[in-house]
Design goal:
alpha/beta; 4-stranded antiparallel sheet; 248 residues; 7-stranded mixed sheet
Length: 248
């Protein structure tokens, strides 16, 4: 997983993450019951959590990044909402609430490269669910996995963050298809005019699962009636997406 407290990375993800489209948001709303709180695990800067709360869904959030949580709380405040937020690693989850549903959106589970830790994260989420309950996990297979580049993929982008500052991003991505691993070296720079006033370098990695593999992983963590289907919303970035739903 990337360094948990990269403030520039969190601001960049906020600026580039966008809002879920109506069909994506409708899907997640349909999975959340009305008889108790739900949990957005590995919620990041709140791309799903904030609009779900704005729609009056009772959703709590947890993420290992203090910087991401701070942005999420700012976005909630701007929307006139609050919700319990926690900073914890997903494989060490120990929250003071129990939930009727949980979701891990945006391929966040894939940031856990170690399969033992991924299993532990799913198990810890399950320990916080009260039957009957369900977990929804979104899996994202980006285009560079389906069509791996022959050399390192270089990407450069500049965005304006929520405070009006410019953040320049440069990324070098390498794909290991046999090892089921994508490694990315990132550089983030906050600029004021021509001056660089802050810089962060980090490395991140993610893995991926096919439909059978994510289903088997959920079943190994003691979820039952597991169903894996194509994501019922349009992919706008060329990635292949599907969702796995497990129940207890």
């Amino acid at each position: 997983m990337p360094a948990p407290d990269s403030a520039l990375r969190a601001a960049f993800e906020h600026a580039t993450g966008g809002e879920p489209a109506a069909d994506e948001l409708a899907f997640y709303r349909s999975t959340l019951p009305g008889n108790g709180p739900s949990l957005a695990a590995m919620c990041g800067v709140g791309r799903l959590l904030v609009p779900l709360r704005a729609a009056d869904c009772n959703v709590h959030g947890v993420d290992p990044s203090a910087a991401a949580i701070a942005i999420c709380e700012e976005r909630l405040a701007a929307a006139g909402r609050t919700t319990p937020m926690f900073r914890q690693e997903p494989d060490e989850l120990n929250l003071p609430f129990r939930y009727s549903a949980a979701l891990i959106g945006g391929g966040a589970l894939q940031r856990i490269i170690d399969p033992t830790r991924a299993f532990a994260a799913l198990s810890r989420v399950r320990a916080h669910l009260v039957s009957p309950a369900s977990l929804v996990v979104e899996v994202v297979i980006p285009p560079e996995v389906e069509h791996p580049p022959g050399a390192a993929l270089i990407e450069v982008r500049t965005v304006t963050d929520a405070r009006g500052a410019q953040i320049a991003w440069r990324s070098e991505t390498r794909v290991d298809v046999e090892g089921r691993r994508v490694d990315r070296s990132n550089r983030y720079e906050r600029r004021e005019g021509r001056d660089i006033v802050a810089r962060e370098d980090d490395r991140s990695a993610f893995t991926w699962y096919d439909e059978d593999e994510i289903g088997a992983l959920l079943r190994s963590a003691d979820y039952r009636d597991v169903e894996v289907t194509a994501a019922p919303w349009e992919s706008r970035d060329g990635a292949r997406r599907f969702v796995a739903v497990g129940r207890i």
